[in-house]
Design brief:
By secondary structure, the protein is of the alpha/beta class. The chain has a single domain, classed as Macrophage Migration Inhibitory Factor, CATH 3.30.429. The protein is 31% helix and 29% strand. The protein has two helices and eight strands, in the order βαββββαβββ. It has a four-stranded mixed β-sheet with strand order 2-1-5-6, with helices on one face. α1 packs antiparallel against α2. The chain is globular and about 50 Å long. The two termini are 23 Å apart.
């Protein structure tokens, strides 16, 4: 956790930036690097009846850490992706509620 889902960026490109990206994000989130999962989704985009290149889009699914951390997280991801000569990338955050997230069948919530 956080899960980083990537579309429109090649696996080899993400491999190139994954270590420094996750190191910087772990420092920001104050957690270990093994808490991060990056998944590159192989998608096919269609527009106007033709297959087109998939637009770079990253979804971050996580437990909310506040606007300041979210803004910094987006800036860090953008910086690393743009270092690949990708001129534009969009990032969206999906927030998990601890009461709806389970690890090995146990809720992450403190609620009883």
């Amino acid at each position: 956790m956080p899960h980083i889902l990537v579309r429109g960026i090649q696996v080899e490109q993400m491999c190139e930036i994954s270590t420094p990206l996750v190191t910087e994000l772990a420092e920001l989130c104050e957690c270990d690097t093994d808490n991060f999962m990056i998944e590159i989704l192989q998608t096919t985009s269609v527009f106007g009846g033709k297959i087109v290149e998939t637009y770079p889009f990253i979804e971050v699914a996580w437990f909310e850490r506040g606007k300041e951390v979210r803004d910094s997280f987006a800036e860090i991801v953008t910086k690393h992706v743009r270092s690949l000569d990708i001129p534009e990338v969009e990032i969206a955050f999906t927030t998990f509620q601890e009461s709806s997230y389970y690890i090995n069948g146990v809720s992450c919530s403190d609620e009883e």
